Every structure is written in C-alpha cells, then in structure tokens.
Amino acid sequence: MDNESRFLCEAIVLAHTNSQNGGRPFGALVVKDGEVVASGVNEILNTNDPTAHAEMTAIRLASQKLKSANLQGCTVYASGHPCPMCMAAAAGRRKRSCLCLLQR
Ligand SMILES: [Zn+2]
C-alpha cells in the first residue's frame, strides 16, 4: 500500500472510531515529509464548536506542533470531501498544502 492510500485509510479509521464513540464520522491527518504531524476528528458534538471539523482540528494541532500558521509542504488527508471552510483553511494563502479526498 502506498503512503497516500495508507494515510487515507488512517483518516477513514479515525472517522469510523469517532462515529463508534458517538461523534460524527469524519477524520483527517496532516502529513509532512511522509510523517503524520497531527490528526483530528470531528468534535462538534462534544465541544459545541461549529468549526471543530476533523480537518480544522488536525490543522490547528499541526500548526501548534509546527509552531507556525504556515503549513507549507503539508498535505491534508480527509475521510470525506472538505467543506468550504476546511478547504480554505487547508489551501489558504501562503500554504501549499493539497488535499487527497474521498467522496462521501
Ligand atoms: Zn469542514
């Protein structure tokens, strides 16, 4: 299995696990240089934060870990098609992250 497939599978497993734990079925990873920098799941229900989508959660954590809002060179792997908010966050100005997606 190549890295893209492996990371997409990891995002799907996160989504499935989150669903089994009562959350919404969405997971995401931020990867840089072939390594997972951060992962996230949809946390809307347990945080009451309407922006706590899996992609946003992973991007926030990756930015904290990398100590930079610039995620140049990172790739976001998502278990579903990102909404416009997440797409904008992943592809924002000065970032070169790209998305590998699975359609719902
Ligand atoms: Zn979103």
From TrEMBL:
PROSITE patterns, per database record: CYT_DCMP_DEAMINASES_2
One of the Pfam families matching this protein, by short name: dCMP_cyt_deam_1
Organism: Rhizobium freirei PRF 81
Molecular function as annotated in GO: guanosine deaminase activity
Gene3D superfamilies reported for this sequence: Cytidine Deaminase, domain 2
Listed GO biological process terms: purine nucleoside catabolic process
Location of the CMP/dCMP-type deaminase domain: 2-104
Protein's recorded name: CMP/dCMP deaminase, zinc-binding protein
InterPro entries: CMP_dCMP_dom (IPR002125), Cytidine_deaminase-like (IPR016193)
